[in-house]
UniProtKB/TrEMBL annotation:
Annotated GO MF terms: metal ion binding
Keyword entries, A-Z: Copper, Disulfide bond, Metal-binding
Organism expressing this protein natively: Pontivivens marinum
Protein name in UniProt: Protein SCO1/2
Pfam families in alphabetical order: SCO1-SenC
Binding site for Cu cation: C85, C89, H173
UniProt xrefs under InterPro entries: SCO1/SenC, Thioredoxin-like_sf
Disulfide bond positions: C85-C89
Family per record: Belongs to the SCO1/2 family.
Amino acid sequence: MESSMPRTAAIFAVSAVTIGLATTAYFVLSAESGDRFAQCRGGVVSGGGGAIGGPFSLISETGERVTETDVIDGLSLVYFGYTYCPDVCPVDLFRNGEAVRALDEQGIEVKPVFITVDPERDTVQQMAEYTDFMHPRMVGLTGPRADIEAAIAAYRVYSGRVGDDPQDYLMDHSSYSYLMDPNEGFLEFFPSSTPPEEMAERIACYAAEL
């Protein structure tokens, strides 16, 4: 199968749509009282932010086994998708990269992280090429299916295969970006509709409170 990179570059203008509505029930667009980050939030997680995130052990784009403590060692934007995604993933990841660049200009370092939901096709090499194209600091994570499923469950991500062809198939999945901190854990989620300028502004707000 041909590399997805040329196709990715051609479809950045495609409007992003939120896939995997099964996860929507986790998110409530209101701020909790007594929350020191209340002025930064666009929403909270039903059941509390502790419902999102947790341990994982995956393979990095450099071929090393890493855990959540290795990856989320500072403010991080975590996104689940796949490199063969024809529309929403490249748009969201490019948007995340733009937000990170805007934050760099403010002296705020945020690590963009991309975890595949399609490890059967997303090899270490494929992830490295894809993430390098999106942002030079983006970390790509793949691994055995069982390890990917554990990460998917920890982040309450919806994912399902569409199609029976062993190579030519799609992955339906939720498309939220999660702002994580090594000490606070989950801080915020950003749907596909959030523009990079708003993401950068809200992340900067969190950074100021940490």
